[in-house]
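Running this now, will post back.
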Amino acid sequence: MLRLSKRSVSSFLRSGDKTFRVTSALPSISRSSPSTTDSRRCDSESRWYSSLTNGKCKKNESLAHLNMKNNWVTGYRYESTAAASDSSSQAPPPVEKIEYKAEVSRLMDLIVNSLYSNKEVFLRELISNASDALDKLRYLSVTNPELSKDAADLDIRIYADKENGVITLTDSGIGMTRQELVDCLGTIAQSGTAKFMKALKDNKDAGGDNNLIGQFGVGFYSAFLVAERVTVSTKSPKSDKQYVWESEADSSSYTIREETDPQLVIPRGTRITLHLKRDDKGFADPERIQKLVKNYSQFVSFPIYTWQEKGYTKEVEVDDEPAESKKDDQDDQTERKKKTKKVVERYWDWELTNETQPIWLRNSKEVTTEEYNEFYRKTFNEYLDPLASSHFTTEGEVEFRSILYVPPVSPMGKDDVVNQKTKNIRLYVKRVFISDDFDGELFPRYLSFIKGVVDSNDLPLNVSREILQESRIVRIMKKRLVKKAFDMILGISLSENREDYEKFWDNFGKHLKLGCIEDRENHKRLAPLLRFFSSQSENDMISLDEYVENMKAEQKAIYYIASDSVTSAKNAPFLEKLMEKELEVLYLVEPIDEVAIQSLKSYKDKDFIDISKEDLDLGDKNEEKEAAVKKEFGQTCDWIKKRLGDKVASVQISSRLSSSPCVLVSGKFGWSANMERLMKQQSAGDTTSLEFMKGRRVFEINPDHSIIKSINAAYWSNPSDEDAMRAIDLMYDAALVSSGFTPENPAELGGKIYEMMGIALSQKWSSSEAQPQQQHMAQSHNAELLEAEVVEPVEVDGKK
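Update: finished.
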């Protein structure tokens, strides 16, 4: 339908012209009858005048209020004749289907470089295709033995010409006919393996072979990552002729011809020749080829041979020197012996590269501990045996096999728990190595120390980091791998040899504490594995289960205190009343401990309680006694609060002290003294932001201590006494240090201590009573000196 803008309508109305001329740029307009239903007319007018009436239209209401002339705009609706024609009377226009077109060279470049970020994988992809060709031949030969009569050996051979930069890979598989060359190599993303598997599924009498690897039809084109020209010579037992397919990296076409050179004829299979690019000719090094095969295709089920230089030692005769020859000629009676030396004879021959059978495909009951340990040392270049291993197979929604290990020591040091990007997990897809470069896709950061291999049949061979991050299969695998890792660690903790878990905890304890912070879903698995020192076990760490078993019958919570060492924790004033009651307290001496315990919140329905924070309830409250003490010391607390001002939030009667006069506790929801100290160390010198995060401080006094009783007496006798004020200040500073806080002005604190020492010492040793005693001691000392000066001569044997 024809629509006009608000500006065009306004300009037309201003012109007052009642005529309307249709230009050739517009379609022909027909005038509809005004006898349209009210609803349609309202809809039409609503569409036409939405810009003039703010989208409002009322049925059966005239447009006279708009003060417009009855012309083509206001009176009628105009529609295109094509739209007004009866659709039932005319046939619909024909629809033409057009195929997409693409510039093949650019499309292939996009496909290859988006799927493969590492050039090394080209050899892995070609070997995987060769393995599929051998698998197909082996399967088809069961029903048709004639297919494998030309060449009995099923193997893959790789020849590298370093001088010319050429790599040749030959397999004795099923090969391809001319039409299969066009279908498989001439059509991008056309997979012969996928067709073969579909045919197996369609055949009710045969089951699919899950060992076939490539199913996406793009693995072959990874050859163009390193090659500027690729030649494929193939011979199928279904055909009498051998055909050659050839294409270049930047070309949008390929050629197929029949092989006519007798020297290049193969009995069966496929030979791929890669003419490497100038910058990638380093891949033609035989040693590098062997290394890539061992890394990526070590566990392919068919033998892979590489062309390698070998040598053997033999003895050869050495010609005598002229001087020695004359000497030997003179001595005719002495029989000469031939002189020889050992030399290394060099030659080239085929060498089997993948001679190791994948251990994870074997039954775990048939594998010995020594075999597991040997596989661990060889795969991860370790010299020590692992602490534990777990070999399992997962079936059901996702199927994969895996062997996991707990290393004996932390490779990056005990303090490194941040590096989650490791090469500890090797991912295989149908025995073909995919990657070991993970960033938390298979294991969370706190379990990044776990080593092992994972072999899945459900992941695509050309898996990338993006695919791993978004794959539902990987998420399921991760969940099950984490569960198995916890089971393995729990087995170490329950071992009869306690030293094994002590060794594990010494190396990886911080990792598990980090897991308490980052992984709430696995708190129930992590908590039993934690170990801490305690007030009843200062030398040996205990588990939370052991703590709960040792709890008193009336104890309702798990008590802990955070500090920088066991010594400072056990001497903290917060423990005094708990020690009297023989209540065990956990010592959190690592920087990460406090945050980890706070993340757990509870264990076996027992809450974790920090004894350095306010409102500590030990379950022995006596309301009558508390009321009496509050009545006696309540005003003293207010007096002390007035003196300390904003340094503390309040002054309260303490229920946790027995021998100390006072203590400074943190607010219930604020930082503890230990956390405040740690955050200051992490602030890189900028402490301005820490002021907003500090918790409220509560000054608690012990009403049974003599110092507090003296302060209370000072309040009732002379609240403005300067000595009492200085005593309160010094008492606060002493509580600040003993509670684990850092004084803001250490020099001022030192001055107060020296001042109090001066007063105490001057009264003790400078008194009048001490002067006579000092004079008497001086006289006695002088008399002893005078007597020592008188020496009488002694006669011995008549001589003085």
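Residues 40 and 58 are 12 Å apart (CA to CA). More later if anyone needs it.
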